[in-house]
Write a structure and sequence with these properties.
454 residues; 5-stranded parallel beta sheet
Length: 454
C-alpha cells in the first residue's frame, strides 16, 4: 500500500496495532486520540485515508464526517465502532463514510478495505446528511457477524430505487427492517404503506394504493400468501406505477424458490421484487446477541414503568441454549413476562426455565413448516458469506473451502447413521471404502470420534 493514513482512536492498543500493521504494509501513519487533532491534520491536507472511532473523548466521530467532506471532498473515512447497532451502520453510510467496521474488527479485513480506499480515494461515496429528528431506539441490535453484514447491506440499498425482498422466519424483524429502510432513506418524508390482500381485491385496488403511497414506500408483506390473481395485479402495478413510482419492499418467511417451483409464487413477480435480497437471521443463528437483546427489552420495560431487572449469568445461559422458534418476538414476550413476574432485581435461571417450560420446541415446528430445499439453504449461507466481505471478494480458494465445509459434516453424520461401519457408510455415500478412509484423514475428522465410530 502506498499513502498516508490518519488514525483516530482513544484506545492506545488499537492505535499501536494499526500503526504497526499499516507501516509494515508501506503506509505512513499519523495516530491520535483526539478528533480535534484529526480535523487539524485533515485541514492541513494530510492523509489519503482516515480510520476513526466513533466515541472519542472530545466528540463523536460520525459528527465530524460532514466537516471532513467539506474540507477534503473525496477523502475516504473508514469508521470503526463498538456501538454495534443498525443506527451506527446507517449513520456511517449517510454521513459520507467510505466504509464501516464494527469492533472487534478483523485486522486483515480492515487492511484490505484500507488498501481499496487508497486505490479509490478520489471516488468517495456521497449520501444525504443525517436528520436530527430520526428515531434512535430501533430494536435492530446485534454484534454478531450476521447482523453486522445485514446492517451494511441495509445501508448500501437504503437510498437506491431497487425493490428489496426481505426474507426471514416469523418473528425475526422483517417488517422492522422494511420500516428502517424507509425511515432513513430519501423518501422518509413520504408515506409508508403496508399493503394487505384486501387492498388488492378490487380492480381499482392497485391504483388506490399508488395514490395513497404518493411516491413513498410500499411494503407487500408475505407475498407467498397472496392468491395468484392478486400477484398478477402487483406485477401490472410495478410495470406501470405512474408518475410517482414508489419504492417497493416485500417480505416472506417462505422459501420463494420452492414456492415458485410449487406454483405458489409467480416468477415474474419474484424477479421484479428481488432487485436486492436481505436475509434476516434467525435468533438461533446469532445467540451471542441474546444478552444484548434481553438488556434492550428490559430497559424498554423499565422506561414503561416496570421495575429495573437484569439477567443472572445462569438465566443468560439458559436463554442462549434455547431454540427460539418464535425468534426475537418470542424473546421479547418472554422478557416482558419475566420483567413483571420476577421476584427480585436479578432474574434467576429457575424463573427463566418456568417461563420457557411452556414454550414450543424448535424441531416440531421446523418439521411441520420448513419446505426449504438444501440448495436454497446453501445459497442463503453463501450469499451471507459474500455479504460479510462487503465490497471485497472473499479470499482465494473458496471452492475447496466450501467443499471441505460440506464434506466433513456429511461424512461424520453418515458415520453416525451407520453406527461407525465404514463399509456401510461408503455404500451410503456412494464412494469407495478406501476413498472414505482417505477423506476421514484429509478432512481431519476427530481421531477420538473416529475410533469410537470404528
Amino acid at each position: 500500500m502506498d499513502g498516508t493514513v490518519l488514525v483516530a482512536d482513544d484506545d492506545r492498543t488499537i492505535r499501536t496495532v494499526l500503526t504497526q500493521a499499516l507501516t509494515r504494509a508501506g503506509c505512513k501513519v499519523h495516530a491520535t486520540s483526539s478528533l480535534t487533532t484529526l480535523l487539524r491534520w485533515v485541514g492541513e491536507g494530510k492523509g489519503d485515508v482516515v480510520i476513526s472511532d466513533v466515541m472519542m473523548p472530545d466528540g463523536n466521530g460520525l459528527e465530524m464526517l460532514p466537516k471532513i467532506s467539506q474540507d477534503r471532498p473525496g477523502l475516504p473515512v473508514i469508521v470503526i465502532s463498538a456501538q454495534n447497532t443498525i443506527m451506527t451502520a446507517i449513520q456511517a453510510a449517510e454521513a459520507e463514510a467510505y466504509d464501516y467496521l464494527p469492533k472487534p474488527f478483523d485486522l486483515p479485513d480492515l487492511m484490505k478495505r484500507t488498501a481499496r480506499a487508497l486505490e479509490l480515494r478520489q471516488q468517495n461515496r456521497r449520501a444525504p446528511a443525517i436528520s436530527d429528528d430520526r428515531p434512535d431506539d430501533l430494536p435492530l441490535v446485534g454484534r454478531t457477524a450476521v447482523m453486522q453484514s445485514l446492517y451494511r447491506v441495509v445501508a448500501r440499498v437504503m437510498n437506491t430505487d431497487l425493490p428489496v425482498l426481505i426474507w426471514g422466519e416469523s418473528g425475526t424483524g422483517k417488517s422492522l427492517i422494511a420500516r428502517a429502510i424507509h425511515d432513513f432513506s430519501d423518501r422518509r418524508n413520504l408515506p409508508f404503506i403496508a399493503a394487505t390482500s384486501a387492498d388488492l381485491q378490487e380492480l381499482e385496488g392497485p391504483a388506490r394504493l399508488l395514490a395513497r403511497v404518493k411516491g413513498g414506500t410500499l411494503l407487500i408483506e408475505e407475498i407467498a400468501d397472496l392468491p395468484e390473481e392478486l400477484q398478477a395485479r402487483l406485477v401490472r402495478m410495478m410495470d406501470a406505477p405512474g408518475d410517482y413510482s414508489p419504492r417497493f419492499l416485500a417480505t416472506s418467511q417462505t422459501d420463494l424458490n420452492g414456492a415458485m417451483e410449487a406454483g405458489n409464487v409467480r416468477k415474474d413477480l419474484y424477479y421484479r421484487l428481488s432487485g436486492a435480497t436481505l436475509t434476516v437471521p434467525a435468533l438461533r443463528e446469532r445467540v451471542d446477541d441474546i444478552p444484548l437483546l434481553a438488556e434492550h427489552f428490559l430497559v424498554r420495560a423499565e422506561a414503561s414503568g416496570a421495575a429495573p431487572r437484569n439477567l443472572s449469568a445462569e438465566a443468560a445461559d439458559i436463554f442462549r441454549n434455547y431454540s427460539w422458534p418464535g425468534n426475537v418476538r418470542q424473546l421479547e414476550n418472554a422478557i416482558r413476562r419475566l420483567g413483571l413476574t420476577s421476584r427480585a432485581a436479578e432474574i434467576t435461571g429457575a424463573e427463566v426455565e418456568q417461563v420457557l417450560g411452556a414454550q414450543p420446541d424448535l424441531e416440531p415446528m421446523r418439521a411441520a413448516g420448513n419446505t426449504e430445499k438444501l440448495g436454497a439453504s446453501v445459497e442463503r449461507h453463501l450469499r451471507r458469506y459474500f455479504d460479510l466481505h462487503g465490497n471485497m471478494l472473499p479470499p482465494a480458494g473458496l471452492y475447496a473451502r466450501i467443499l471441505r465445509e460440506v464434506e466433513a459434516p456429511l461424512i461424520e453424520i453418515a458415520l453416525e447413521a451407520t453406527g461407525g461401519n465404514q463399509a456401510k457408510c461408503a455404500d451410503l455415500l456412494g464412494i469407495n471404502r478406501n476413498t472414505l478412509r482417505k477423506k476421514i484423514t484429509d478432512l481431519d475428522i476427530e481421531v477420538t470420534r473416529r475410533r469410537k465410530l470404528m
